[in-house]
Amino acid sequence: MAKINLDHIRHAYGLRPTAPQDYALREVHHEWNDGGAYALLGPSGCGKTTLLNIISGLVRPSEGRILFNDRDVTQLSTEERNIAQVFQFPVIYDTMTVYDNLAFPLRNRKVPEAQVDKRVREILEMLDLSDRAGKKARGLTADQKQKISLGRGLVRSDVNAILFDEPLTVIDPHMKWVLRSQLKSLHRQFAYTMVYVTHDQTEALTFADKVVVMFEGQIVQIGTPAELFEKPSHTFVGYFIGSPGMNVLSVDVQGSTARIGDISIDIGFAPKVGKGQKTELGIRPEFMKLSRKGMPLQINKVEDIGRQKIVRATFAGQPVSIVVKEDGEIPTDAHVDFVNSGINIYADSWRVEREG
Ligand code: ATP
């Protein structure tokens, strides 16, 4: 499989782009490891499919190059790039049997029939479709057809990468979970380079070792699930990952103190924030602790969602959410404390590194 280099890629669908917002992809410059499992995560319209299609060769970028194992493939077709793709909706031959659908990509590459048979049977087993091998694809449910599509994507082991574009959308919730886990274990077993587009954070976080969070045509962070949770690089990541998302409060920072109205919070380090930059404090709902004598808080509503409660409150005039364990106490005269290690400071929406 291949290491993928995205070398100063920009893409605009319209002619003569000038402003940053004319670009569907503003500037993407990264190296993705051979054998990595990457999920492209972000809201609708942020550029996920555009980036995936640039990797596959369906779209030529307006600027920049794409390299597989240091070879420039920017001008090569999808076929010449030797990648497998799985789309949102099934792409299969209705008149062929399930078996022949899966065998097709291998036979097309003149793989000896004994090897085809071995590999197809493995995939049938994995997808729990062995008993339907001889059936025509036409009669199958949408679910089953999409499983064949997945199988066709996974059947060749000589591809440079396997690309998935929201492949589980039509699959029912239980099966979704099963297939996601199977993809993950296949990845562990064979170390395929996989790129998986989704707007579902659970899907991204369970599938990938590295989640690539996109926002308005940019990659705002590439990180492990823990990094995205603990150190969101951009306020958007804090808000988009986690449920509820990170609380973002407007603050003034002086030295190692953040001030919100007449409340002062010790943040434990002195962030460097430029003059005139918008300064914000980010803290996840899990790191705000209800107490009896901390900082004042006004509780507006408590939502009991089973294993935990979500407290919706106002803190220094700004709305916040706080997560409390199922058996956690909610004092009547509530106050709040911040867990210091859970505090991040943002300057113009980007996280300011703690030094030392
Ligand atoms: P979704 O989850 O809705 O598929 P996405 O994150 O995959 O969204 P893209 O489909 O890559 O986003 O779209 C990025 C931007 O490019 C959007 O503003 C979209 O309207 C625009 N766009 C996408 N395809 C085309 C096209 N063929 N022609 C013109 N504009 C396009």
Question: What does the secondary structure layout of this molecule look like, with pairings?
Answer:
Blueprint: E1 4-11, E2 25-32, E3 37-41, H1 48-56, E4 63-68, E5 71-72, H2 78-81, E6 83-86, H3 98-108, H4 113-126, H5 142-154, E7 161-165, H6 173-190, E8 194-198, H7 201-207, E9 210-215, E10 218-223, H8 225-230, H9 235-240, E11 247-250, E12 252-254, E13 257-260, E14 263-266, E15 279-283, E16 288-291, E17 295-296, E18 298-304, E19 308-315, E20 318-325, E21 335-338, E22 343-347, E23 350-351
Bound molecules: adenosine-5'-triphosphate (ATP).
Write a structural description.
By secondary structure, this protein is an alpha+beta fold. Helix content is 25%, strand content 32%. It contains 9 helices and 23 strands. It has a 6-stranded mixed sheet with strand order 6-7-8-3-9-10, with helices on both faces. It has a 4-stranded antiparallel sheet with strand order 2-1-4-5, covered by helices on one side. Strands 11-15-22-23 form a 4-stranded antiparallel sheet. Helix 3 (98-108) packs parallel to helix 5 (142-154). It is globular, with a radius of gyration of 24 Å. Bound molecules: adenosine-5'-triphosphate. The site of adenosine-5'-triphosphate has 11 residues, from helix 1.
